[in-house]
Structure formats: C-alpha cells, structure tokens
Amino acid sequence: MFQSLTEKLANAFKRFRSKGKLTEADVKEGMREVKLALLEADVNFKVVKEFTKSVTERAVGQEVLESLLPAQQIVKIVNEELIRLMGSESPKINIAPNPPTVVMMVGLQGAGKTTHSGKIAAMYKSKGKRPLLVACDVYRPAAVDQLKIVGESVGVPVFDMGTKISPIEIAKAGIEHAKKQGLDFVIIDTAGRLHIDEKLMAELKTIKETVHPDEILLVVDAMTGQDAVNVAKSFNDLLDITGVVLTKIDGDTRGGAALSVKYITGKPIKFIGTGEKMDALELFHPDRMASRILGMGDVLSLIEKAEAAFDQKNAAELEKKIRQQTFSLEDFLAQMRQLKKMGNLDQILGMLPGAATNKGLKDAKVDEKQMDRTEAIILSMTPDERLHPEVINGSRRKRIALGSGTKVEDVNKLLKQFDQMKKMMKQFSGPGGKRRLAGMKLPPM
After folding, report:
1. What is the spatial order of strands in the sheet that 158-159 belongs to?
2. How many domains does the chain divide into?
C-alpha cells in the first residue's frame, strides 16, 4: 500500500538527515523533492501546493532549524500535516437515535459498491447491529442476484422486489420491512453507471429526498487516482455525500486518492477496502494512514487484527500447553488458522514499523500457498500422529506425503521445524516463561 510514495518520501528525508544543521535553503530544496513525490503519486495539484506550503512554513521556523535533530522535526511536521490533510479524526457511521440507521451507497459501476455494502453490513453485524441489505439496482444485469450472494456470504438478509419496481419504491419498502422485522441497520445498494449522467443523479437525489438517509457513502476505486477525486467532487456537489469508501487500496502504490479526497470534497474517508475477502474492510484512521505512508508502520491496526483473530480462552489454553510441554501438531494447525484469519499476510507484514523502507522486509513475500501445503500435511495425519509425531516413521511419511499431494521432503521439513519449536518451547515451562512467551514467533513455514 502506497509503496511508491513511501519510498520517494524516504529518499527526500535522507537529504535532511545527511546534514547536521539545516538552513532555509536546505528545507526548500528537500521540499521540492517531497512536492515531486506527491505529484508522481497522483495527488491533486492544489493539495500538493497547500501541503508543501504548510510544511515549509513550519519547517523554516527557528524552533526546527535550531533544534538538535531538525530532520526528525521535519518528519514530525510532515506526519502532522498528512493527518490534517486526510482529516484529524477517525470518522464513523452516524447511528440514528431512532432505528433503523439508513446508509445509502452510491458510486459508479465497477468501484465495488455491492461488495462493500456487504462488507459494511458484516462489520456492523459483528458490532451487534441487525443489518438489512436493500437491492435498488434494477438496471445492471444480475445486480440483485449478486447482492443476494453477497448477503448470503455474510449472513445478512436481502430485501428485493425484482427489477420491475421503481428503486425509490423499493428503498421505501425496504426500510418499512426493516422496521417490521426489528432490523436496525439498513444499507441501500443503489444503481451505478459507467459515467455520471443526469438520469443517475436525478434518481439518487429522489431516493435521498424520499428516505432521508443518515449516511450517503460514495464508493470509489483508489487505484484510479485523480479520476477517483473528480468522481468524488461530482457526487458531492450533487448529493452532498457524508463520506467516502476507498476500495482496492491494497493495490494502490501511489496514494493520490487517499491524500486528495478530503481536501477536495471536505468529506471524510470513512472506510477502506483492503482486499477481496468480505472481512477485508477497515475504518479509516488518518493518523495510522499517515504513519503507513511515512514507513512507520501501523501497530494499532495490527494489534486490533490480532485481537479479532485470537480469543483470550484459546490464548490461555495455548500458554498452559506450552508450559506443560503438551503442544501438538493439532495446536500448531489451530494457531496457523488463526494467523490466517488476520487477513492478507503481506499486508500484515506491511504494518510493521520500517517494513516499507527496509529492503529485506519490503521485498519479502509471504507464501500463503506454503501454509496451505502445511495444513494439508497435518490433515493427512491420523489424530494419534498429530498428538505424537515421534511415531511417524518412513512408511507413514510416504503415506502422509501421498495424502497431502506433497513430497516426503516436505513432510520431513515440517516435522523437523515442529521438533525445533518443541525444543524452543521448553524454555517457557520454567519461571518467567509467560514473559518470554510474549516474544515468541512461529518458525517459517
């Protein structure tokens, strides 16, 4: 995410760090590189101009230039200005005082509107809400069927009236249905077009005036850069949106849309789509995003993902097994599955501080297929073999390799790694083991 921009900004900051003391000329020369990095990242020109002006004005002050570590001060200023640019607070959905909360999803075709309607429904379902998806796209072929598939995948009901009824009537009927069924969170999936036109906007404005949504979220594709910003401005001018959902941000190496949308529209980014899976959705935190852009990682989001994947009961049981030296391949498999629940492992790696600028970490790729092979090997073992891998002799290894579609060498490698892990775990069985356990990592797979 934003790898290209992160690298270019890191190179610009090297200019500052290479000098013990900075002059005003040094700052302005370095800021020219920052400006170029932002323009190459497809950030809106007005945004770049305002941003570099604000940073320069603060950076040439006496407090910075006369400090012991002026380069660090400038990075701190850039971080603060990035946060201000993207919105100082982490915006959330406005929950209606009298249910249901109505969220109207708008946007052009292909941005991911239907999928992200489902993602938001799933997120708020996990927060205790009872959501309903309403199918108001009666024009795109199979749009209603797609929403039903999305709804089924996240366990959320879908209200539809086919494709012959007006979207305005469907939206009204959907909200009434939610009230009768005691559902308190309605997401209206509206129609999109390949481009903005009068007919599309007139229909969306009529739906807005009819159902009075608590939120109007515009879904835009982050990878389209300046086009995403132009679309956001057009929709905002005509509909007065309340927020933006940036999709495909995991594939956006530049970051132009994320850095420009708030400044151009005045409306916050509320969610970011970080992958294809239905749980690949995050609340947008400007401070955490600024930290990622500057290569400082995003430890808070990493912790939240870990907390969502690992429950306290399982963690306590794992600790007990490690202390009692009863950790088995069955437990290893369970831990690996929980790790995969955290999401795309390359993205997880990117949340580590310094990962975006460290050459070794930046180029590292997590082989998730290897994890699948490891899982297949363990599943090809009998329950007794998983509990007591020492019984696995040569003939059993051949059987396991055949059953998992792998080679005997792969089975040998896994058993050797597991044996090394067991030896390593012995140090956690004595006094102070709990403290040392916190720093333990699984071996490579």
Report:
1. 158-159, 131-135, 185-189, 101-106, 215-221, 243-247, 269-273, 281-283
2. 3
